[in-house]
TrEMBL record:
Transmembrane segments: none annotated. The keyword Manganese does not apply. It holds the Pfam family ADH_N. Belongs to the zinc-containing alcohol dehydrogenase family. The lineage of its organism: Bacteria, Bacillati, Actinomycetota, Actinomycetes, Mycobacteriales. Its EC number is 1.1.1.1. InterPro entries: ADH-like_N, ADH_phosphonate_catab-assoc, ADH_Zn_CS, GroES-like_sf, NAD(P)-bd_dom_sf. Keywords: Metal-binding, NAD, Oxidoreductase, Zinc. This is alcohol dehydrogenase. The keyword Zinc applies. Residues 31-146 form the Alcohol dehydrogenase-like N-terminal domain. Signal peptide: none annotated. It is an enzyme of class 1 (oxidoreductase).
Length: 340
């Protein structure tokens, strides 16, 4: 294990030249801030999109917004005590702008985001691909029970919490036919969460390996030749063809929730008459609210032995090898991971 001089930490900094691990001074938290020692970070697909140039992002930066760790220092008025094991939200909200005041803290007018800030700015340690992360006031921290392994807890901060927001947008699910589009980490999490709420779940994905994972997460593999009407469709793929197909399968009063379209893509054609006559609802979610992160931790804690969460997270690499996992993952692996 590598050693560091007192007062230093290490971070994997992504730039135009690739990923370089740098040593830097360990910050001391100010009022409302929390310093966390990162135990494990998982690699969200959106970071892969960033590295591959598919979406704009601050550069250089410390990426990583799915992680779990222990609080090692706090400033005055910090929400939790030193030693607490936590996950934290992607967004830091001001709490005072019109959006925050009406409950849209995820879209705060002055929002700052974990793993999305410039390394050359005033929040260099903003991402989870580092030994430590400094969390400002406005970030939600949630305590994680010891029974939830690191590999299960880390995705709560993005994948699981986003699913909780999507399910809230979908409405009651008991007895309803739900089609999940995309059998990545979010899709399989949604499959399990919908099953837990009493839904009849099918999961669609063009990759047969990923599609077959649905059976372990409360769903049934779906394919175009199976088809059939559904009451709810949840999209985590962002694929135009998948969205078009889902729209055609919505039964009367059906709802389509979009959560996967987070980078530019082709326009989806929508027939207004079909929306009107079918009493259909189309909505989207991006980021999530603090309650969704709390629900995510509660959900994972309650299902930790019911679904094979750890099986879809690869064994962690060291921080020095972070560049090796910021690439598309092999079939069957939904999340790479880094142990800083």
């Amino acid at each position: 294990m590598d050693t560091l001089a007192p007062g230093l930490t290490r971070a994997a900094v992504w730039s135009a030249d690739g990923v370089t691990v740098r040593e830097m001074p360990l910050p001391q938290p100010d009022r409302g801030q929390t310093l966390v020692r990162v135990d494990l970070a998982t690699v969200c697909g959106s970071d892969l999109h960033t590295v591959l140039g598919n979406r704009p992002a601050a550069c250089p930066s410390v990426l990583g917004h799915e992680a779990v760790g222990h609080i090692v220092a706090t400033g005055a008025d910090a929400p939790l005590a030193v030693g607490t094991r936590v996950v934290w939200s992607v967004t830091a909200a001001c709490g005072q702008c019109p959006r925050c005041l009406v409950g849209f803290t995820a879209k705060c007018a002055r929002v700052r985001k974990v793993g999305h800030e410039s390394f050359d700015g005033d929040w260099p340690l903003s991402g989870g691909y580092a030994r430590h992360i400094l969390l400002p006031a406005g970030v939600t921290l949630v305590e994680v029970p010891d029974r939830v392994p690191d590999a299960v807890a880390a995705p709560a901060a993005c994948a699981t919490a986003t699913v909780m927001a999507a399910l809230e947008a979908a409405g009651p699910l008991t007895g309803r036919r739900v089609l999940v589009l995309g059998a990545g980490m979010l899709g399989l999490t949604a499959s399990a969460a919908c099953a837990e709420r009493g839904a009849i779940v099918s999961v669609a994905d063009p990759d047969p390996v990923r599609r077959s994972l649905a059976t372990a997460f409360g769903g049934t593999p779906d394919s175009p030749d199976i088809g059939g009407l559904v009451d709810v469709a949840l999209d985590f793929s962002g694929a135009t063809a998948a969205l078009t197909g889902a729209l055609s399968r919505l039964d009367l009063g059906g709802t389509l929730v979009l959560a996967g379209s987070v980078s530019p893509g082709p326009t989806v054609a929508v027939n207004p008459e079909a929306i009107v006559r079918g009493w259909l609802t189309l909505t989207g979610v991006h980021n999530y609210e603090p309650r969704h992160l709390r629900e995510a931790v509660e959900f994972l804690s309650g299902t930790v032995t019911r679904y094979p969460w750890e099986s879809v997270v690869a064994a962690p690499v060291a921080l020095d090898a972070a560049h090796e996992v910021l690439t598309p993952t092999p079939p069957g692996v939904l999340r790479a991971s880094i142990a800083p």
